[in-house]
Write a structure and sequence with these properties.
mainly alpha; two-stranded antiparallel sheet
Length: about 70
């Protein structure tokens, strides 16, 4: 596989680990000193990153060829 495939697979793996951490101990959204922290938005961004990685990995995967030999 190409180095691009390996890099995208690593990003996917790291993002899945972050997603697991966040969903294991969910936190509410809050605002402090005028700064909004929206965990649901962060969760959605992580899910979008995983979806992007899945699409890119599928594009980079070599196509499968099925053949059958007859005798």
């Amino acid at each position: 596989m190409s180095s691009d495939w390996n890099q995208i697979a690593l990003i996917r793996s790291q993002t899945l680990a972050l997603l697991a951490q966040i969903t294991a101990a969910p936190k509410p959204s809050y605002q402090i000193d005028g700064q909004q922290v929206a965990w649901s938005d962060y969760l959605r961004q992580l899910q979008q990153t995983i979806d992007w990685c899945n699409r890119k990995l599928a594009e980079l995967r070599p196509p499968e060829v099925h053949s059958q030999a007859f005798t």
